[in-house]
Amino acid sequence: NAFAFERQGLGLLLGFPADRFSILAAKNVGVLVLRLPSVLAVSFAALVMAGPALVPAVATVVLLVQVLAAAVDNYLSILFPLPVAAAGRDPSTPVSGTRALGTAVAVFVAMLGTLCVAAPFVFLAWLPQLLGERWMWALTLPLALAGAVGVHFMATSVAARLLLRREPELVARLAGDE
Fold first, then answer.
1. Average pLDDT, stretch 136-141?
2. pTM (2 decimals)?
């Protein structure tokens, strides 16, 4: 879910008079669609291991964590852009200026941040199971998902403002001009 994979298309994309929030939200929707098989796989694993009663809660938790991870990915794309190999070069070769340890730390902090932000919504999703009142899932699962979507849109709004400020630097870095 990184802008780095766009390379030359990013300059064209950012050249359009499109709202930066719309660009980030569309990028996130695309990633979520591509991650739907993982939701289905985890839901199927829950079905096999725990039975059908827990599948809605498991699917909701996986989906809300992915929604929040997509919002955090916006910040990684904007704050730590990765230059990619020039056209015609092997994309798997390291690009000058990349920092493997720094990238690993940034990704770890992003994952930890995602888990911290997701924790209240995960707790809300599992509260009926903890209380032994599964009928409450009819209330808590939509609330947990709505809360995660709300946080996603707030975080994406802030990321869009950050993108506007860092846009020239981001395009230059991705193009390898730095």
1. 94
2. 0.81
